[in-house]
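Blackboard transcription, Thursday session:
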Amino acid sequence: MADINPLAPAMPLAIDPEIGGPPTAPIGGVPPRAGRPAVRFGRLGPTLVLILCAIFFIAPLLTLARYALQNVPTIRLGASTMFDKWSLSGLTKAFSDKQFGPTLRLSLKLALGTVTLTLALLLPTAIWVHMRLPRMRAVIEFVTVLPYVIPAIALVAGIVVVKPHARWFLDSDYSLVPFYVILALPFTYRSIDAGLRSIDLKTLVDASRSLGAGWGTTLRRALVPNLRTAIISSAFLTTAVVLGEFTIASTLLKNTLPTFQATYVKREPQGGYGLNLLALVATTGLFALLTVATRKRGSRKVKSALTDPAMAETMAFAGITRSQQGR
Amino acid sequence: MTNIIAASDGTAVGGRTVRAAPVARARKRLSWAWLGVVPFFAFLLLFLIVPAISVFQQALHNNDGSFGFDAMKAAVQGQNLDAFWFSVRFSAGASAVGVIIGTLLAYAAVTAKRPKWLRSLVTSFSGVAANLGGLPLAFAFITLLGRQGVLTKILSYFGYNLYAGDFQLGQVSGLITVYAYFNIPLMVLITLPAIDGLKASWREAAANLGGSSFTYWRRVGIPVLMPSLLGGFLLLFANSFSAFATAKVMTDNSKIVSLRLGFFLGGDINVGQDAIGYALAAWMVIIMGVCMGFYWMLRKRAERWQT
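(Written on the board underneath:)
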């Protein structure tokens, strides 16, 4: 009698690891046999994949850091010289190069111009389409992937054709801005579209308008604060893309930071590797900043643009843009 | 009777006239609403469509300068055909590697329960890694796998010569390795929503009907994931095929179509063959168009099981 546990009836209710509660459907048949190799392998496989991927993704960064920061020829590299001569001298040399300042400034200006033009063009268009032309959404969505159909290297071929007819425009360094807006379109539009889909646009606009606000005030005080995440994400992603754009800038012979990076490596390998390492660190920093800037407070589950499933496609598309023009 | 009902819910008999009015109003409003997207389309036309059309206009030339398909034909013959074939091969390889490892990684991240932060770490890192690089990535791989690279040295210390075979950063094997760096995280981002869409109850239902884990994957899991996987393959293929700067830094291999195009534009190949250069660009646009078209169709299918 004493060995009848009062809790016993609760025990057979197996907790399903997939959903963290009792099974939604009774599981018939044979229960999984403990110690079956497949069970252990099932855990081993994913862990192995994770570890191998981690090594693959970190190794090139470490070796780049070594070349950038350690002044030991490869031939003499070994266990004994592993920690010799690490310094920032390559980097400081690159910073003091007289081309570094101007190219960095130009790239920053291009990034600022691209972000501004993108928002000025896309925010009103996307809001308008959501409010008045919902049937156009599919069309616009398709149109915004056209920059993948016409990749940067093909686009620049077209620019070269047009160039003799529009020298007054294309000779200026800032003529890159509209093309960068185009290249960024797939992910900037997706980011803003996802933002608009997550809010009740019509109610917000109606409420704001009925309180006597004009369109400008509505946009500034009702919509932009609600689209914060979308706007910040597209701004950061665009900045990252512009600061790395190489294809168009190098073909049109513009002296932006990436073209300087490419030529400087040939002159000063160590400093050049240093600059490239810095570019990687800066991009990562930009994304860390993006995570902090878009972190949603209040909700218990911390969500940011980087881990938000609704943003996954935006991030993927940004990556594709990078590889077409930046890589 | 019917009249009373019609009056009470405003649908039946009298409804037709009542309903006709808003439709007419909506149509009237629509006719002006399109003006709102004119700036956007004008911008697109000017900075994307016009350059694209001028590429085709330059490409559609015969040897004597008249309109025709000579240049388009020449761009897929001889060395140019070799280049396209080479590019298709390494892009397909890089894309396959990305799809397989990316899906495994996404699955590992979703199913691993223990460290709770693992999933968000993998997603965040994929977001960053997919966007890392450009030139820096190419240089990073040169320091790892180049002739003087660290891994090359380590391997040769253990008596293995990495460069003994046909390995080179600019050849198929090298390009696949380097492009995997951005293709894998891209695939993770593309496929995560699809893997999230696999419901636990499906697996239970399969088990309930006596299906093994293998049967579940063969009959349920893989078919549901298939549109996402194929779509991902096409996207990664397009991505690898048109990537330029990474390849440009690592190699001078003119078998890579995007580099070959770059040489034409940079004037390394003589001016008389201009039309062939533009024809290369035109073919590239066509290939990208086909890939993205199919991707678009598959994406619509893939979305069915998501949300």
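Lecturer's comment: Chain A has one domain: 91-326.
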